[in-house]
Amino acid sequence: MSNQCSFPDASISTDTRISFSRRGEDDIAELKLRKLPERTPVKMTIQILPDLAEALQEYAAAHEVSYGSAEPVVDLVPAMLASFLESDREFQKTRRQK
User: What is the model's pTM?
Assistant: First the structure.
């Protein structure tokens, strides 16, 4: 596929081909981006106390004010838990020792 530019004597080729060849395992390059982790969601059901439910709703409202878009609590909680676990140094140290 080739497109012609509107300038005289100029053309732009849009023919792009990408090919991959199989290499032996010894020849595989180490890519900067590692293999993506498992991303199949795991559904969990929990029960929380009314005070925590209210606090989560208030946090969702504050999040909306800060970022300009409403996010449901069920979408915020996984990010909150991940942030909490990532910031817990003792937990991270224990995980690295495994």
Answer: 0.59
